[in-house]
Amino acid sequence: MDPRKVIVCRCENVSLANIEEAIDKGYTDLESLKRYLRIGMGPCQGRYCLVLTAKILARKTGKKFEELFMPMNRPPLTPIEFKFFMNKSFTKR
Amino acid sequence: MTLKTKLLIIGAGIIGVMTAKFLVDKGFNDIVIVEKKYPGSGGTYRCATGIRASFTSLEHVELMKRSINLWPILSKQHNIPYKRGGYIWLLSRPEHVELFKKIVDFHHKHDIPTKIISPEEIREIVPTIRTDNLLAGVYDPLAGKASCFLSLLNILEYIKKKGVKVIINTPVYKLVTRNHKVVGAMTSKGVIEAEKILVAAGHGSKKILDTIGLDLPLENIPKHALITEAYKPLFDPLLIDWQTSSYIVQVLHGGFLIGANIEEKPNTPPTNRIDYLFLAANIWTKYFPWLPYVRVLRYWTGYYVMTPDHHPVIGPVEEYENLYVATGFSGHGFMMSPAVGEAMANYILGQKQNIPYIENLSPERFTKGKLVKEIAVFG
Ligand SMILES: Cc1cc2nc3c(=O)[nH]c(=O)nc-3n(C[C@H](O)[C@H](O)[C@H](O)COP(=O)(O)OP(=O)(O)OC[C@H]3O[C@@H](n4cnc5c(N)ncnc54)[C@H](O)[C@@H]3O)c2cc1C
């Protein structure tokens, strides 16, 4: 299949071809690749795309998957509307 | 690993990378950059990307005027998304308006075209904002924003192509000295020998300098920020609510980024606090009636590396002739990075500085009691 038509990151519309080109340019660590293409920075926060990207990276660089895949999950994990935090203040008990 | 280099830069944040860029442009490329984790992993990737010259000290103003001239040039050279969308300070108290009148006078003396604007004018620049609580705003049209990811990555790609060696996942443990000269750095992978060393390690700088008894008064203060889903451009300026020391900016990719001030102890781990989300929501949903329905994507914390006078520590270290520092940006290192990178390159090559007052920011000012004054620090 044409790598330009294989979408790896749906939130930011990044294709397999985009990823392979970036790796060829020298973006061979997942953190830099993520910032360069914005993979995993959309609403899914990497749930669908980061594992796939790490696999592509492993295949192309020959590095181990475990070596490459060190994701950082940030709260609130799923997108949540501001209205849930309004007009109340949070106090520790 | 034994490596020898003319210049070792510790820290692949925006400051280290920019310095290397200006050196490479002048034909100096025998440079190694050593980075604890990955490039940008410190303050740089956590920043709000804001850029302004409207400060209240001559040092900051001159440094930032130079930076604001350099940003569009760098943006063209390295394909960095950058926009002069301005800043607006939102003022809700009479005493703040009085204070800002004085600040605006100071700016005009130094060719910064800020101006006091009315709530109606604020609404013209920022459609959909509620201004019921506001008395006035201060508009800085020269201010702007840039992509922190692409500023770093595109310049990094450029300097690597020009021969700069970048070693990642390699912390520096200590500096190595001989006869009052720094001769290298001990890393997790062995010693890197260097003729000159620049410490640009952000929040890690103090620890590194401590290893040779150089005690700079740097404090790492945790700061909080969040970003929402991306939208089409709605307003250009970065908005600062002066009363609460909180800001909102629609970054160039489209997300709304909010930073708000909550009390934190220096040098504590930058942990997430749920009260921050309540604080940010309560401040900004009052201004924007649509904001309650916008979704928060991510929340993170990072450090401001603070100095006692909230000005950076830039320059050569007197006690060690071949050691340089560039840190302590007190929350403004991203915007200054072009001017600081250029100035550090000049220092390292022994060339003349073209920014007035830059020597006032030397590391020795703390021991000599020559602190610089600045009041417009927020967030
Ligand atoms: C929430 C937030 C919002 C901000 N908003 C803005 C803004 O709008 N505008 C602005 O101008 N600035 C802003 N800043 C400040 C800005 O991010 C920093 O001043 C700037 O990124 C500093 O760059 P740096 O290169 O000095 O440090 P860093 O980016 O921290 O880089 C230093 C590097 O050194 C590495 N390092 C540390 N210790 C060691 C070691 N022992 N060995 C090897 N490497 C080491 C780190 O891993 C890091 O990558 C903000 C900061 C935060 C936290």
TrEMBL record, chain B:
It holds the Pfam family DAO. One of its GO terms (molecular function) is oxidoreductase activity. One of its GO terms (cellular component) is cytoplasm. InterPro entries: FAD-dep_OxRdtase (IPR006076), FAD/NAD-bd_sf (IPR036188). Residues 7-346 form the FAD dependent oxidoreductase domain. Keywords: Membrane, Oxidoreductase, Transmembrane, Transmembrane helix. The keyword Transport does not apply. The chain crosses the membrane at residues 7-24. This is FAD dependent oxidoreductase.
